[in-house]
Amino acid sequence: MATYGENYKYVTPANKQGFHSEFIINDKTNNLVSQWNAYEIDENGIVNSDPNKTYTQAQQLELVDGNSVNFAESAGGWDYHNELDSNPVSKYDSEVRKKIGKEWENPVTGLKNRNAPNYFDIDDSENKANKNLEG
């Protein structure tokens, strides 16, 4: 169901404490990826985030990638990254994002997983992102 490699993660250089910003950009549209792109907003500004609505695959990608700008800390490892980045956001996730997130499989990384159907090549993504920024 998922399409891996459609989005690029742009990562800013880390500061002295190891913090950096991450921006997720859709390769096809060159726009920030955001759950807000998937929701319908009526003329009164009311957001429809009905978990029973049928969302397209593109909308689901926007929802599961969540907010497109976040921060991380490289020296603290994944546990620290999750404490700063993932856990606080997921606490306030909408019901639709939680529901769709359960239906998606996270990509795997690392050379030993290269042949897995849900493999995501982080180095290749970074190289492509840098070429796009240069060009």
Describe, in plain words, how this protein is organized in 3D.
- The chain is globular, with a radius of gyration of 16 Å.
- With 135 residues, it is an alpha+beta fold.
- 34% of the residues lie in helices and 16% in strands.
- The protein is built from four helices and five strands.
- The chain has helices at 57-65, 77-91, 95-103, 122-134; strands at 7-11, 19-26, 40-41, 47-48, 69-73.
Question: What proportion strand?
Answer: 15-25%
Tally of helical segments: 4
Average the pLDDT over all residues and give the rounded result: 75
Residue ranges: pLDDT <50 for 5 or more in a row?
none
Largest sheet: 3 strands, antiparallel
Across the major sheet, the strand order is: 1-2-5
Question: Could you give the order of the helices and strands?
Answer: EEEEHEHHH
Helix content: 25-40%
Count of separate structural domains: 1
Strand tally: 5
Integer-rounded radius of gyration: 16 Å
Multimeric state? single chain
Distance between the termini: 32 Å
Given the helix and strand composition, which structural class is it?
A: alpha+beta
Shape: globular
Summarize the structure.
The chain is an alpha+beta fold and 135 residues long. The protein has four helices and five strands, in the order E-E-E-E-H-E-H-H-H.
Question: What's the layout of helices and strands?
Answer:
Layout: E1 7-11, E2 19-26, E3 40-41, E4 47-48, H1 57-65, E5 69-73, H2 77-91, H3 95-103, H4 122-134
Summarize this structure as a short list of keywords or feature phrases.
alpha+beta; three-stranded antiparallel beta sheet
